[in-house]
Each structure stands twice: as structure tokens, then as C-alpha cells.
Design a protein that fits this description.
The protein is α/β, with parallel strands linked by helices. The chain has 15 helices and 17 strands. It folds into 2 domains: 170 residues, Phosphoglycerate kinase, N-terminal domain (Rossmann fold, 3-Layer(aba) Sandwich); 192 residues, Rossmann fold (3-Layer(aba) Sandwich), CATH 3.40.50.1260. The longest helix is centred in the middle third of the chain and has 14 residues. 49% of the residues are buried.
Length: 396
């Protein structure tokens, strides 16, 4: 078992804290502060227990100099200060004398935020390439390292994996809770266990499907990825999204698990995702120009019937192009059924989490994951580097 923030005496300690403050920003304005709020529990715990916080986070991708300004963490420091009701000292640099000085003089109860760790990617991808010299520098600023950035735990970066080589380390509340919740539903021996998959590309979900197909009783496939499966069955899918490289995989899955896999039988069809109108068509009746954008009413009923009596559900992906209200009905209908029948459900981050926030009540679900890629890889059965690198608790 990995150590957590609770396993350390933080009084008088400088805590290097990796957060996931990668929030959407437009023209200097934060559009959604959910990830900032998700870090507050761990930050406040450190401060309440006599420590101070030296926070590291990335923001967006930094591939060229033009990316620097739009991915500046300063607006995040302002919002974090508002949420903490205290000043957050901000450093416009990732390292240097000013960073050293501020960290050295930081007092218990104080918080500082260093500039976007991916600024270091401009010089040989030192952050994303897990440069150990950079990791050692960041480690030199504090006494203990806590990783609260669950959303980046599937990446081996200097600021989450490399730093563990130079400091005692533990997990914050956010990744600890994520792993506990995912393990909780995956290790439970209750049936029927139903997996619902959606989203665009089958290739993104191949490893998840392979890992879960033998554990679940049923796999319901909606969203754009369903059309690749339908194409594998010989259907004309018109101009619907197709992941051509995954057709053979779909054929193999359908041949091997025909009794477990359920596909749409009808769709809401339009000429494009921006279309003003749509028609409902059986999947066997598509014309060449038809684009499937949501599951139809017969599919909603089919999926409900296969969810009847389910004891637990894992969802990854949506049933349609939910961002357009015209094509959100299938996803919403599935969520409504789950809530009405009080089925224990894990929603796997990314678009799935965003769709729940838009179409349903997140509080009615067992767990809404905050990590898209991290949760996907964990459901694949992979070890997450950002968690594997954390110190183990001593037995006994």
C-alpha cells in the first residue's frame, strides 16, 4: 500500500505538492475551476497540520514560445487564492534564484505556486521526458513530496515520477480516493456487472475492452465507436465516424463474445453534427450520406433491458454527440435509468464526466472520476507511473 499525506508529520515541513490545475482558460479567464477545487482538500490538510505548500502543476501543452503566454498559471494562482481565502505567492519562473529564495523563506500556512512545469518542455522536454536534474532541483525546494494530481498519474514526468527519487513521497486525497473507488467497484463480486462503452475511436478503448470483457456479464457499445462495430458486421454506416484500423479487432470481439456484446439497433441520423434536423433510422437502413449521432429510442430500450437488475456498471464514453442538445437524449436516458434504479456506477472521467455534469446529477453516482487518461489506463489493468513511484508503507 502506498503512503499518503496522512502518513507524514507535516509540522514545520515544506511540502512540494503536485496538483492538476490544468483548467480551461480563455483570454485570461478560467472557464471551469473544478480541478482547482479538487486540490483544496489536500492543500488545506497540509496547511492545517503546520506545513506550507510549494505547488507544481502543468497547464496545457508547451511546444513553442507562442504557447507560453496562453498557458501561464498566473490566473490559476489568483483563483486558488480566492478559494483558499489567502494569498498564493506566484513565481513566473520554473526555477532560479527567485524560486529558491521564496521557497526558503516560505512559512507554515503559506502557499506558493511555481510557473507551469511544461515551460521546461521548450528545452528538450525536460518535464515530460522526466529529466532527473530538473526533478532533483524541484525536490531540493522541500522536505516531502505529495502527489495529488491524479489526472497525470499515467504520465512519467519530472514533477511526479522523477521527484520521488529524491524526496519521501505520498499520495494526496484525490488520487487515493480515485484508486479506492475504482478498485472498490472492480473488485466487488456482484453480478450482473455491465460495462457501457462509447466515445469516438475504438482504438482508444481496445485495451479496456480486452481487460473488461471477461470480467463483465454484458458490454453495451454506443457512441461513434459503435459504427465501427456495425461496419465490422457488414452494415453500411454512411458517413458516420469510422475507425478503419480497428475493424478486424471488432470482428474478433463480435465473433468471440457475441453473447455479451450489444450494439445499437437504431440511430438519430443527420448529415453532420451541426445539422438542424435528424431522422431516426434502423442501423440496417443507412444511406451513404447518413451520419449516426446518437442512439435511437429502440436502442435506449434495448440497453435499459440489458441494464435491468445490474448490480454495478462502469461507463466510459457517451452514447452520442451530447454536446449538441439534439443528440444528448440517448446519453441522458441511460443516466436517468441508472439513477432511477439506484445502480452502483463508476463514470470514467473525460467526456463521460463532463456529460454527467451537463445532463445529470453527479451526486447520484457511486463515483465520477476526475481523470480521463489515468482512469482509462487503470481500467486497462496498467500500473500508473505517478502512483507506482510513491513510497510504500512499511508492513506492520
Amino acid at each position: 500500500m502506498k503512503k499518503s499525506v496522512k502518513d507524514y508529520d507535516l509540522s514545520g515541513k515544506k511540502v512540494v505538492l503536485r496538483c492538476d490545475l490544468n483548467v480551461p482558460i480563455k483570454e485570461g479567464n478560467i472557464l471551469d475551476d473544478t480541478r482547482i477545487k479538487a486540490s483544496l482538500e489536500t492543500i488545506n490538510y497540509i496547511l492545517d497540520n503546520g506545513g506550507c505548500c510549494i505547488i507544481l502543476s502543468h497547464l496545457g501543452k508547451v511546444k513553442e514560445k507562442s504557447d507560453l503566454e496562453k498557458n501561464n498559471l498566473y490566473p490559476v494562482s489568483v483563483r486558488l487564492g480566492e478559494l483558499l481565502n489567502k494569498e498564493v505567492k506566484f513565481l513566473p519562473n520554473t526555477r532560479g534564484d527567485d524560486v529558491d529564495s521564496m521557497a526558503e523563506n516560505l512559512k507554515p500556512g503559506e502557499v506558493m505556486l511555481i510557473q507551469n512545469t511544461r515551460y521546461e518542455d521548450l528545452d528538450g522536454k525536460k518535464e515530460s521526458g522526466c529529466d532527473l536534474e530538473l526533478a532533483k532541483y524541484w525536490a531540493s525546494l522541500g522536505d516531502v513530496f505529495i502527489n495529488d494530481a491524479y489526472g497525470t498519474c499515467h504520465r512519467a514526468h519530472a514533477s511526479n515520477v522523477g521527484i520521488c527519487k529524491f524526496l519521501p513521497s505520498g499520495l494526496g486525497f484525490l488520487p487515493s480516493r480515485e484508486i479506492e473507488k475504482i478498485d472498490g467497484i472492480m473488485n466487488e463480486d456482484t453480478h450482473p456487472f455491465v460495462v457501457i462503452m462509447g466515445g469516438a475511436k475504438v482504438s482508444d478503448k481496445i485495451k479496456v475492452i480486452e481487460n473488461l470483457i471477461n470480467k463483465c456479464d454484458k458490454l453495451l457499445i454506443g457512441g461513434a465507436m459503435a459504427y465501427t462495430f456495425l461496419r465490422a458486421k457488414g452494415y453500411n454506416i454512411g458517413s458516420s465516424i469510422l475507425d478503419a484500423d480497428s475493424i478486424e479487432f471488432c470482428k474478433e470481439m463480435l465473433d468471440k463474445y457475441s453473447d455479451k456484446i450489444f450494439l445499437p439497433v437504431d440511430s438519430l441520423v443527420a448529415s453532420s453534427g451541426d445539422s438542424d434536423g435528424f431522422v431516426i433510422k434502423n442501423v440496417s437502413k443507412f444511406s451513404d450520406g447518413d451520419m449516426g449521432l446518437d442512439i435511437g429510442p429502440d436502442t435506449v430500450e434495448l440497453f435499459k433491458n440489458n441494464l435491468n437488475g445490474a448490480k454495478r456498471i462502469v461507463i466510459n464514453g457517451t452514447m452520442g454527440y451530447y454536446e449538441n442538445d439534439k443528440f444528448a437524449g440517448g446519453t441522458k436516458a441511460i443516466y436517468d435509468y441508472i439513477i432511477d434504479n439506484n445502480i452502483k456506477t463508476l463514470v470514467g472521467g473525460g467526456d463521460s464526466a463532463a456529460s454527467v455534469n451537463k445532463l445529470s446529477n453527479p451526486l447520484k453516482f457511486y463515483h465520477i472520476s476526475t481523470g480521463g487518461g489515468a482512469t482509462l489506463e487503470y481500467l486497462e489493468g496498467k500500473n500508473l507511473p505517478g502512483i507506482s513511484a510513491i513510497d510504500e508503507k512499511e508492513e506492520g
